[in-house]
Amino acid sequence: MSDNIERISESMAKLSMKWLSAEDEYPDLSKHNNHMAKVLTLPMYKKLRERVTPNGFTIEGVIQTGVDNPGHPFIMTVGCVAGDEETYEVFKELLDPVIEDRHGGYKPTDKHKTDLNPDNLKGGDDLDPKYVLSSRVRTGRSIRGFCLPPHCSRGERRAVEKLSVEALAALSGDLKGKYYALKNMTEAEQQQLIDDHFLFDKPVSPLLLASGMARDWPDARGIWHNDNKTFLVWVNEEDHLRVISMQKGGKMKEVFTRFCTGLTKIETLFRDRGHAFMWNEHLGYVLTCPSNLGTGLRAGVHVKLPNMSKHAKFEEILTKLRLQKRGTGGVDTAAVGGVFDISNADRLGFSEVDLVQMVVDGVKLLVEMEKRLEKGQPIDNLIPAQK
Amino acid sequence: MSGSFRRLISGRSTAVLLASLGAGTMATGVLLNENGSLAAEAKKKLYPPSSDFPDLRKHNNCMATALTPAIYAKLRDKLTPNNWTLDQCIQTGVDNPGHPFIKTVGCVAGDEESYEVFAELFDPVIKDRHNGYDPRKMTHPTDLDASKLKHGMFDENYVLSSRVRTGRSIRGLSLPPACSRAERREVERVVVTALAGLKGDLAGRYYSLGDMTEKEQQQLIDDHFLFDKPVSPLLTCAFMARDWPDARGIWHNNEKTFLIWVNEEDHTRVISMEKGGNMKRVFERFCNGLKQVEHLIQERGWEFMWNERLGYILTCPSNLGTGLRAGVHVRLPNLSKDPRFSKILDNLRLQKRGTGGVDTAATGDTFDISNLDRLGKSEVELVQLLVDGVNYLIECEKKLEKGQDIQVPAPLVMFKK
């Protein structure tokens, strides 16, 4: 114990020599436009820099990506990430207001509802395939007890991979599949995964790189998918697991059913091995980016809306329907040939069923409108109220 | 112990340090995580060093060559006094496997102490990179007496410009991979204050990257002085671009012949340059400027990181010793086409680069020729080596112009055994 004390005194002496104050450390956020920059203040920073999660994650780790990426005048990024489950507690003072801002006024006292029962979805099996080209539902899951991608060590990441691969190997029937580790795949396997649009690559977005998520690439990263290529799991990309159910056409109900069945089975398989997903009553499923809390769910379709997209009220209608548009390459891409990726805008405060319902109902309406516009008919009486 | 817990690191606060040591002491106004030390011990058992050892089978860099599971096991749980770890030193080398032809270094120092605490890794890396230089047994000579340089005037029909650069680190403050925003700002403050004391032909001005006007920016670009946020993954993976452009800037003298980069890849990069072939004058200004800056920071109680074994301490092990790259832009239309060109350069211990700097291609027949070595020879010795070498290359060029034959010189010996 005594040489511990010596070590401490020595280190403390050195630290106090360079003891630089919170004011000296405070980031310059004057040109920044992201949720973290809007919420963080000097008094808050002063308080939070004294804290550390049990895994050693600090406020610097939380905000680095937001400091390094000032953001865009039009697009409000989140600007902070979690390094472990405890981040959301230890740094509440910052994350609660960020969550409130990002998730439509969700309060620290609000409770999030989880509903993965596909029987509760009404309709959704008859989206017109002449317009709806494909349907997809994705979410993420984190394994309790392991640090998240910004903070995990190589050992932890490999443990997440091992656990996931073992659990997925126990899936059967139409969910039976195979794992492809990024660092071991053959050229042929790689090409196939690219052709299937399954392969994920090392992140290039500075938003992700600045948070430390790409460290040690491609160690312990991989892709699992079922033989039918309708159920896909990404391991150790932006979250521990990203789970995706997808197929061509407009049968969203089928996609969602497989999604729920698959997820529930996977959760059971993890439980059998002594591991739970990170979840709590307030935040729902806990993921790396605060924007993905709650359901972490993005249900979407690729849909042809060449006329709708030119309509002056397109954006307004999407907002009313609580939907969001993206290009067919995913986030931050442009639409090609009038085909849009339309998905739910919300993640937290609504259940999985609620969100998929919004997409199903919303897309049905958009296709209705598209058909009307094709015939030169007006759509004003179809415009909905704010959901 | 898991890398995650050791990364208490970035907090650089007393609380974090105390938690890591599991001590019961309290400092005023500081919040302790009581479960901190328990979590650390548990994680240590759950994740032995072998579980964290990086997969380096496809890697070709000095770190990957030197790091063994045994060394990793010994060093993984160690901390420098600034809480910097081995994992952080090697992250850039893990993330960048390298190239079959180009052997990068693959590790960086977070502070001066990194080279000591992680000596078992850095010593073999240094040996590999610096021609067998052994920091345990050898000493590095520092010599900034420019008067000793001979024949430092090049034929300006061939040499278009002359340049000498090095770096300097401020002792007591962490290096770019590890520094906090406050430390980085402190580096800026110390350096800019010192530079404001320069007079005569060295008098100049500082341009902070974050504050400069559009016009100032354009001028600096036109002068080829402006540096930009690093894009090379070698640097970004080493955490050097954090908080950009906070506390980064460029200082140069009014005559635009002496230039200092603040908080780019090192605390400071010092550059002396001129059009034409007067390397002697460039080197004189270089030495004079460096000495003056050193004097000015010493007046305020600061000093440069330097020791006998490693010379000047910089972020990348490749820049230890002198950190000096002396070079010219030189036209060698005939010689560059001669198949013996590379061998001649090798034997003269010179390196060619394109005129855009490292990792660029030559335009036309103009090359950037500079010294290869950094450590084990003094500044005067290395610049002399460059001068003699370039003069030899020009001689060869002239001979080839006249249709005469040239000779490959005998290889220069680096260290006398």
TrEMBL record, chain A:
Its EC number is 2.7.3.2. ATP binds at residues 134-138, 197, 242, 298-302, 326-331. This is creatine kinase. It is an enzyme of class 2 (transferase). Pfam families: ATP-gua_Ptrans (PF00217), ATP-gua_PtransN (PF02807). It catalyses: creatine + ATP = N-phosphocreatine + ADP + H(+). Residues 131-373 form the Phosphagen kinase C-terminal domain. GO terms for cellular component: extracellular space. PANTHER family: ARGININE OR CREATINE KINASE, CREATINE KINASE B-TYPE. Gene3D superfamilies: ATP:guanido phosphotransferase, N-terminal domain, Glutamine synthetase/guanido kinase, catalytic domain. Belongs to the ATP:guanido phosphotransferase family. Residues 16-104 form the Phosphagen kinase N-terminal domain. The keyword Nucleotide-binding applies. One of its GO terms (biological process) is phosphocreatine biosynthetic process. One of its GO terms (molecular function) is ATP binding. Keywords: ATP-binding, Kinase, Nucleotide-binding, Transferase. Residues 102-123 are annotated as: Disordered.
UniProtKB/TrEMBL annotation, chain B:
Keywords: ATP-binding, Kinase, Membrane, Mitochondrion, Mitochondrion inner membrane, Nucleotide-binding, Transferase, Transit peptide. CDD domains: creatine_kinase_like. It is a peripheral membrane protein. ATP binds at residues 161-165, 224, 269, 325-329, 353-358. Residues 158-400 form the Phosphagen kinase C-terminal domain. Residues 45-131 form the Phosphagen kinase N-terminal domain. Its EC number is 2.7.3.2. It comes from the Eukaryota. GO terms for biological process: phosphocreatine biosynthetic process. SUPFAM superfamilies: Glutamine synthetase/guanido kinase (SSF55931), Guanido kinase N-terminal domain (SSF48034). GO terms for molecular function: ATP binding; creatine kinase activity. GO terms for cellular component: mitochondrial inner membrane. It is an enzyme of class 2 (transferase). It is found in: Mitochondrion inner membrane. InterPro entries: ATP-guanido_PTrfase (IPR000749), ATP-guanido_PTrfase_AS (IPR022415), ATP-guanido_PTrfase_cat (IPR022414), ATP-guanido_PTrfase_N (IPR022413), ATP-guanido_PTrfase_N_sf (IPR036802), Gln_synth/guanido_kin_cat_dom (IPR014746). The keyword Protease does not apply. PANTHER family: ARGININE OR CREATINE KINASE, CREATINE KINASE S-TYPE, MITOCHONDRIAL. Belongs to the ATP:guanido phosphotransferase family. Reversibly catalyzes the transfer of phosphate between ATP and various phosphogens (e.g. creatine phosphate). Creatine kinase isoenzymes play a central role in energy transduction in tissues with large, fluctuating energy demands, such as skeletal muscle, heart, brain and spermatozoa. This is Creatine kinase S-type, mitochondrial.
